[in-house]
Amino acid sequence: MLVHKKARLALSVAGVAFSVLIMFMQLGFFNGLNDSQANLPPHLNADLVLLSAKRTHLNKTNRFNPVRLAQAAAFDRVVQVTPFYEGQTAIKNDEDLLKTIAVVAFPPGTGALNAPGLPPRADGLNLRSAVLFDRLSREIYGSASPGKNLTTSDGTLRVAGETAIGPNFTRDGYLVVGSNTWLGAGKSPWLSLGLIRLQPGADVQAVKSRMLAALPADVTVLTPEELRAREIAFTVRATPSGAVFGLGLIIGFVIGVIICYQILFNEITDHMPQYATIKAIGFSDAYLVGIVLKESLLLSILGFLPGFLGGWLLYHQIQATTRILMYMTAGRAVFILFLTVLMCVIAGFIAMKKVLRADPAEVF
C-alpha cells in the first residue's frame, strides 16, 4: 500500500529525508564547533600534558615556569619531557596586509606533534627562522608554499614545509617553528604546555596522580584525551552552541514526526476499505497496528539513506569551504538513524488511531 503510488512514495521519502538532513546538519555544526576548538590536543605526542592550573581552556595564554617541567622529569617512569610554546604573530598575505596567525614551537627532534605532513622529528626546524605552514589555514594568509619567505611581525621566516592542523573559531591557522626560532624572536621562555612521555606499559593514571600530589598547585596534569574533553566541555558551557543546535535538532525531529504522520494518515485514509476488509475477515487490531508500524519503519529507512548521503556531501563541502571539522562518524550516523526510526514510529502510533476505527461496514 505504501509503494503503490510511486510519485507519492518519492515525495514521502523526500519529506523524511529533509528532516533527516536537518538533524544531520544540526549535529554536524554542534560537533564541528567542539571538534575544531579542541583540534590541537589530538596532535600532541604525549602521554601526559602539564599546564598552568589557571589555564581553564586553551584560548587562555596562562604559562608556567619551566622549572615545573624539570620537576616532572624526575618522576619514575618518565622518559622524555618536551617544552611546548604557544603564541601568535602577524604575517603579510599576498595583498600585503598583516593578519594574525597562531604559532606553536618546540625543540626540533623531539617529535612533539604528530600532525599530518609533519616529519616525525621535524628536523627541518633546526634552521633558525624555518617554519612549517599549516596548509589547512584559511585563505586570508595567501599562498605559503615551501621555499617562500614570510614577512611577520617577528621577522622573516622561510617556509620549510607544510603540516595540517586546521583552524577553529578563534584561530585561522598555525605556524610551527622550532624553539630556537621562538626564543630567538624574544618570546617568553615560560611554557604553555609540557609534554611528558612515559615508558611503554607505564600506568598513566598512576603517574598522573603522583604528579598532581607532588607538584605545586600552580600546575595541573591531564592526558591529551582529558585535555580535549575538557576543552569541549568548556566550549559547550561557554557558548550557546548546545542550546542552539540542540533546539535545531529537536525542531528537525518534530518536523519529521509531522511529515511522517501526514504521509501515513493520507495512506491510511486512501486505503480504509482495505483495512476494513482485513478487519472483517478476522484479523486483529494488533495485526493492523503491525502494518502501520512496518510502513513507518520502511519510511524511516528509505528516508534515512538520501538524508545520510546529503549530510555526508554537505559535511565535506562545508569542511572544504570553512575548514571547520565536520566528521561523519559511525556513532553520529547511528544516532541520527535511531532518531529517524523513533520519529517515524511515533508518527505511526499517532496515525494508527484511524486504523483502529476501521469499520468492516465501510467495505459495502
Can you walk me through this structure?
By secondary structure, the protein is α+β, with helices and mostly antiparallel strands. The protein folds into two domains: 6-37 and 240-363, no CATH class; 48-222, no CATH class. Helices cover 48% and strands 17% of the residues. It contains nine helices and nine strands. It has helices spanning 6-37, 66-73, 179-184, 204-214, 224-238, 241-270, 272-280, 285-322, 330-356, and strands spanning 48-52, 78-92, 98-106, 130-134, 149-152, 155-163, 174-178, 193-198, 219-222. It has a nine-stranded mixed beta sheet with strand order 5-6-4-7-3-2-8-1-9. A hairpin with a 2-residue loop joins strand 5 (149-152) and strand 6.
For the structure shown, list the relevant keywords.
single chain, 364 residues, alpha+beta, nine-stranded mixed sheet, 9 helices, 48% helix, elongated
Largest sheet: 9 strands, mixed
Question: First CA to last CA: what distance?
Answer: 20 Å
Strand order of the largest sheet: 5-6-4-7-3-2-8-1-9
Number of strands: 9
Q: Total helix count?
A: 9
| Anisotropy-based shape | elongated
Domain unit count = 2
Helix-strand makeup class: alpha+beta
β-strand percent reads 15-25%
SSE order, as H and E?
Answer: HEHEEEEEEHEHEHHHHH
What does the average pLDDT come to? 88
Oligomeric category: single chain
Helix content: 40-55%
Rg from Cα: 28 Å
